[in-house]
Amino acid sequence: MCISKSDSHCGDGGIGKTALAQQVYNDDRVTNNFDVKAWACVSDDFDVLAITKKILETVNDHLLCEGKDLNWLHGKLKEHLVGKKFLVVLDDVWNENYGEWIILLKPFQLGVKGSKVIVTTRNFHVAEIARAQPYILKELSQDSCMTLFAFHAFGVGNFDHHLELKGLGMKIVEKCGGLPLAVKTLAGLLSFKVSPHEWKDILDSKIWDLPKERNDIIPALKLSYLHLPSNLRRCFAYCAIFPKDYEIERDELIHWWIAEGLLEGKEGKNCWNAGLKFFDELVSRSLLQKSSSSESRFLMHDLVNDLAKLVASATCFSSGEFEYEGGQNNASLVRHASFICSSLIVAKRFKIYYEMKGLRSFVSLAKQPRYHYKSYLSNKVLGDLLSELKYLRVLSLHHYRIREVPDCIGKLRHLRCLNLSYTDIETLPKSIVALYYLETLMLRGCQNLTKLP
After folding, report:
1. Whole-angstrom Cα distance, residue 150 to residue 172?
2. Each residue of 101-144: pLDDT tens digit?
3. Residue ranges of the chain whose pLDDT lies below 50
4. Is 249 in the same domain as 341?
5. CB 60 within 8 A of CB 110
6. Do 106 and 165 fall into the same domain?
7. What is the pLDDT of residue 311?
């Protein structure tokens, strides 16, 4: 291979593997040193076709890859990499199948000397199978943790102006086990709080004594959640609707919060400003973090996503991550659900949603939100679905190949947010005027739309 070296960042969850890779990936010196760059979040599902598509669409965002087979994708990727120096990051990899690795890396054989593939993983064996030179990330030192803690708690890198809190800070940091995400999350929780009593409450919390399901970071994340205001807890739990590695659009999420009544007590502009404040609060507590690809998009760390799904319990459902089996899950408890779209939507794929009689949010998500392709959805399949979901407050079907909207949409009397952006609709049914509570109607990019009722 012409790849001079594959590098692997190994370490526990929350230790900073992705953050370090992002720092390298976005550094101007790195950007200027490569002809082509691509980033792909992999997670549990090592789908060679899907990963190749992610990389190719990053390299050429105008290329339509939906419905193409692996040979076509490999051919196009080779065209973009041949004779070029490239940097590819495969983030959060778990796959140990050597054969799948060989297939995935085929197009990378044509790069010039100095091309790099960086893999981040919690599994050292993955680095061995990928034949990558491993860089084992170790826990931060106590001094580094204190500097990081102070920066996120006070905005400066030391305790010089809060000496009375330094001792408590050191003990809290010790409990974080040198994991940067845990340090940042707890520092965000105590941000600009100067009462020793509040700091001691965190230090003495019984949560530290609970069994650690995944690793040492879980208690820190749970503490951060439990100390959120009640409304903000509900907004955070709602984020369980997103699959792992999904890039969240801030404004879209706030519209959904508003429609669901999660910002109750506010109206109009005040409600929107409250949503912005809540969103910024989650970012400041490191429960959401900026995406490296866009200033307007945000991500949840995998462990934070796990926490959201834990606290949301059965009320949230994401088709990209959970398989429903009768008797094991109670679909009637689900209130917020997402649907991962594909090129052709058949009635069978909606079967589970028919059982969610109390569903309030149904949002369609692309596997890669930056690279939408239009999914075909027949009027009958959509009509049958909407006839079952009578209590919807949020309905998002953007980027669907929909020519008309079923007349039965007028029966969704609780609907408050409707997104039909970038669809092929020409008009809306007259029944839509019956949607008394509708507050937000999104019709961006509907080029065929000629009139409204």
Report:
1. 12
2. 889 888 888 778 889 889 888 877 787 777 778 888 888 899 99
3. 1-5, 214, 322-328
4. yes
5. no
6. no
7. 87
Last residue of a domain, one of 181, 196, 227: 227
Treating both helix axes as pointing N-terminal to C-terminal, what angle do 98-105 and 48-59 enclose, rounded to 10 degrees?
30
Q: In b/e form, how buried is each residue of 194-209, taking b as 16+ CB within 10 angstroms?
A: eeeeebeebbebeebe
Both tokens of 158, joined, read: 């030391």
- Does this model's pTM top 0.70? My answer is yes
Q: What is the reported pLDDT for 127?
A: 78
Q: Is 452 a member of any domain? A: no
Strand partners, 419: 396, 442
Q: How far apart are CA 414 and CA 394, in angstroms?
A: 9
pLDDT single digits (tens) 229-241: 888 999 999 999 9
**The predicted structure's pLDDT at residue 349:** 80
Both tokens of 73, joined, read 């994708």
DSSP assignment of 350-415, as one string? GHHHHT-TT--EEEEE-SSTTS--PEE--HHHHHHHHHH-TT-SEEE-TTEE-S---GGGGG-TT-
Tokens (6 digits) for 251: 């404004």
Instruction: Name the CA radius of gyration of the chain, rounded.
Output: 24
Complete edge-to-edge strand list for the sheet that includes strand 440-442: 316-318, 336-340, 361-365, 394-396, 417-419, 440-442
Cα dihedral 46, 49, 52, 58, rounded to 10, equals -100
pLDDT of residue 8: 63
In a shared domain, residues 390 and 412 = yes
Q: Residue 350 has what pLDDT?
A: 85
* Pair 338, 365 in one domain: yes
Would you say residue 449 lies in a domain?
A: no
